[in-house]
Amino acid sequence: MKLLSVLIKSLREQRRDLLSLLLTLSTAPFFVFVYWLFFGGGSTSYSVLVINQDRGVVIEDGTTWSAGDDLITMLQETITYENGQPMLRVKQVDDRADAERRLKNRDAALLVIIPPDFTQALGATETPPGTVTFVGDLTNTYYTVASTLANAALTGFLDTVTRQGRPVQVVEEALGESSARTEFELYVPGLLILAVLMLVYQASMVVVREVEAGTLDRLRITRLSAFDLLGGISVSQVIIGAAAVLLTFGTALALGFHSTGPVWVAVLIGAVTTFSAVGIGLIVTCFARTTYQAFMVSTFVLFLMMFFTGTFMPVPGGELLTLGGHTFRAYDVLPPTHAVVALNKVLTLGEGLSAIQFELGAVLVLSVLYFAGGIWLFQRTHLRRE
To answer: Mean pLDDT over residues 85-99, rounded?
Structure first.
């Protein structure tokens, strides 16, 4: 009977904390639903860009045969899943510089360059083998899959059209210094973002402690505005976040990490992203009345950021539109998504400030929106109570 009494008491107490109960019950189903949105239509298709320089040859009946065109057809049609969905989304392009920009933005996984003498190489017996070039960011896991599938398609094509040993060889060109990164160095950009995301906990709990302590009731008498309160707290949290980024980056450098691009640009990215994390933390505050609730909501938000910003694993699909040469995805509303791309450009690909203007601008705009949203919600949920 005592056990039953404790059970009833515990259930009643839990009923009074519906927010944490709902988060506990709904977090996993929510992520199942989101993953269904991304993967429900089938498995991942990898974006491959192709520059076809093949001149072709004139055959006996006077027509021109281009083995490059046939290879592109095989890439598009023969590499499929069991349900018929293509594994590779192939798009022909002409400008290599634009194609490499897409690779750096991770709008594509692989660039295949078919040489001018591709068709001739298939019938030659004494000339050196032709060369097909694979270009990509070797730190991008999607490149590994896409290049393997493309190489399999190329091998199958060569087996079909020629019985020579290997008339064409594949040469791999890595973007930046992506081929020289150690496994430890691959994880450092994500860990820098993690240092920033931890501020979601910090910022939300600092404000909620003010609510729990009754400080807001006293401050309300002084006609304190939400901007004054949250602005002051936010500046302190941004300072703490910048210190966390510097400490994390300094630790990585001391342990052997090296940046191929300007270190100060990477630190700038971390500092700007810190502002967005504080803004998200302020929004979390508006849905919590206790530090425990703030912790629960922050944990949910942190999982969301880690899974859907590419911090530790690439996120497929979600494309909405392409505008101004940039592909916009559903999860681009999360500021760390842009920070991950920017850090990879600087730390791995050796880019400078001019190459990350779009990503840095996106983080700034989203940070302002989140901060403004946090102030508005806090004004309505806390400062206008009673």
So the answer is: 88
